[in-house]
Amino acid sequence: MTLHWTIKPYEDLTLNELYELLRLRVEVFIVEQNCVFQDLDRQDDQAYHLLGHTEAGELAAYARLFDAGISYEEVAIGRVIVSPAQRRHGLGQELMRQAIAHCEVLYGPQPIKIGAQQYLERFYQGFGFVQCGEGYLEDGIPHIPMRRA
Question: For the chain, which terminal residue's Cβ has fewer other Cβ atoms within 10 angstroms, N or C?
Answer without folding.
Answer: C
